[in-house]
Amino acid sequence: MHSRYRRQPADATIGAHPVILDLVVRRFFCDNDSCSAATFAEQIAGLTQRRTRRTTALTTMIEAIGLAVAGRAGARLAARLGIHVSRDTLLRVVRAIPDRPIETTPILGIDDFALRRGHVYGTVMVDLTSGRPVDLLPDRTSDTVSTWLQAHPGAEIVCRDRAGAYAEAVRIGAPDAVQVADRWHLWRNLIGAVEKTVIRHRKDLSAPAAPPDDTEEIGDNTVITEAPDGRLVVRTRERHAAVHELHTQEMSISEIARQLNLNRRTVRRFVHASDTDELLATSFDGRSHVTHCARGLPARTLRRRMHRCCASDPGDHRARLPGQRADRPSISAATAHRRPRQAGTTAYAQHQAGHHVVDLPSERSR
User: Fold this and answer.
1) What is the C-alpha R_g of the chain?
2) Domain of 162, in residue numbers
3) Which residues contact 67 (CB under 8 A, 6 or more apart)?
4) Cα–Cα dist 210/207, whole Å
5) Cβ atoms within 10 Å of 167's Cβ, excluding its own
6) How does DSSP assign 66-83, residue by residue?
7) Helices in the chain by DSSP H: which ranges?
């Protein structure tokens, strides 16, 4: 021992009262010229750590508070417990917590998640035995995933979606693992396939039966559709024609999106659509703002308000439905295209066809 110094670290509180320890620490010096440390201070295992003014017990309490409430709320709670710590220190202690060691799991789940929806995606690795995430990867490329699998061997079953990059990554990184698909992705893929089939063959669907004369055209059985020459239809046809015209000039989807000021996903959907009917069938379900506002209103109240909207002054606030922003011409145009359903029948939109197929028989009548 070459010298000593006094150290006063803060310890865990007792009855909301701060506790300060007064320690005498021995210091040792190294005479070796090639030693990078040169000075060594004594540490008490389980009590003190290097370069901290808190004991291990107090640091553990601050970590628990920071993980539970963090920030300002954590600082207020710590003050009531007798721990004087700022919100910035709480966050700094939480960030300094080391990550858990990545353990190999025999049943591994691989899926993507959005860091920035539509632009940046990452990959999450999940231990399906415990249901806890194992690691996060910065992207969803096959090289990144295969490198991770090679660095963490031991996966016997890999559950993934239908992404080709993940399939290739598993073949390279874990060639002996069995690749399976989870139930959610199977159902989701089946629903998507059924909906695409229904949309593709929508012209072959039989027309709905004519309603009886005494069918009431108000209430929950009213479906409001847009006029065939509405603004949505005209805009969709114009964009579809413009996209296909540029696509025939061998322009890429990104170039078309920049020139027409559209999203790349929208341009890709327009390119793959054979006609505008398919686009309209997937983007418009026949419901207007008036339909959503009228939902849940009694038949008598709806009849009275519909009568007012057709007979009263456009500025009369009583002529509008709850939450409805349209004026009288909008309501009149919407109610002029009402399509009543036949009593006793249940109609559903095309996007509900997939759910209707995969639902249990006991659930279809609901």
Assistant:
1) 33
2) 107-181
3) 94, 97
4) 9
5) 16
6) HHHT-HHHHHHHHHHTT-
7) 56-68, 71-80, 87-95, 142-151, 164-173, 183-200, 231-248, 253-260, 264-272, 276-283, 289-294, 299-311, 328-335, 353-358
Q: Does residue 364 sit within a domain? A: no
Same domain for 142 and 33?
A: no
Distance CA 251, CA 17 (A): 72
Which range, 15-19, 58-62, 205-209, has the best average confidence (pLDDT)? 58-62
Same domain (yes/no): 83, 150 = no
| CA angle, 88 then 93 then 97, to 5° | 145
Residue range 307-351, pLDDT digits in tens: 555 544 444 444 444 444 444 555 555 444 444 544 444 445 555
Q: Let me know if residue 238 belongs to a domain.
A: yes
**Same domain for 235 and 155:** no
The answer to whether 345 and 365 are in contact (CB under 8 A) is: no
Provide the 8-state DSSP code for 162: S
- Among 125, 157, 181, which residue terminates a domain? 181
The DSSP result for 68-134, as a single string, is HT-HHHHHHHHHHTT----HHHHHHHHHTSPPPPPPP-SEEEEEEEEEETTTEEEEEEEETTTTEEE
pLDDT in tens, 108-145: 999 999 988 878 899 999 999 888 899 999 998 999 99
CA gap 113, 121 in Å, rounded: 6
Q: Are residues 127 and 35 in the same domain?
A: no
In a domain, 365, yes or no: no
The verdict on 16 and 68 lying in the same domain is yes
Q: Are 171 and 81 in a shared domain?
A: no
Choose one of 95, 119, 139: the last residue of a domain. Answer: 95
* Statement to judge: residues 345 and 243 lie in one domain: yes
Domain total of the chain: 3
What integer pLDDT is reported at residue 337 of this predicted model?
46
**How many Å apart are CA 105 and CA 155, to the nearest integer?**
6
Cβ contacts of 94 within 8 Å, gap of 6 or more: 63, 66, 67, 70
For 260, counting Cβ atoms within 10 Å of its Cβ (0-12 exposed, 13-18 middle, 19+ buried), the class is: middle
> Is-above-0.70 flag for pTM?
no
